[in-house]
Design a protein that fits this description.
Blueprint lengths: L108
């Protein structure tokens, strides 16, 4: 209880949490309101899930409003959404507006 923290650093090796124990790993769960950062300012590849069947839920629970931002519009960012044979669904509230592109869009 109280204020505390764990800092784990590695000079050149990996740091693994729950590498093979098959237990849940919770980060900032409960009533935490702190920022959770994954990755830094350097060029990185970040993998969530691996070769097994993976379900990723982002902001799926509760009643509060959620905003998910991926990438930015000022650099060479790109976004690839891929769906195999499992279908692709984009679903919103009846009042949702869907915008693709903008007035400055000149590509195809």
């Amino acid at each position: 209880t109280g204020a505390g923290g764990i800092t784990a650093t590695s000079g050149s090796g990996a740091i693994n949490l729950n590498a093979s124990v098959n237990q849940a790993v919770n980060i900032a769960s409960g009533t935490s309101t702190g920022t959770v950062s994954i990755g830094g300012s350097g060029a990185q590849a970040i993998t969530i899930g691996d070769t097994g069947i993976t379900t990723l839920n982002v902001c799926a629970g509760g009643t509060g409003a959620k905003t998910i931002t991926i990438g930015d519009v000022t650099t060479g960012s790109s976004l690839a959404l891929k769906a195999g044979t499992g279908n692709f669904t984009l679903n919103g509230n009846v009042a949702t507006t869907y915008t693709i592109g903008n007035a400055a869009q000149t590509g195809t």
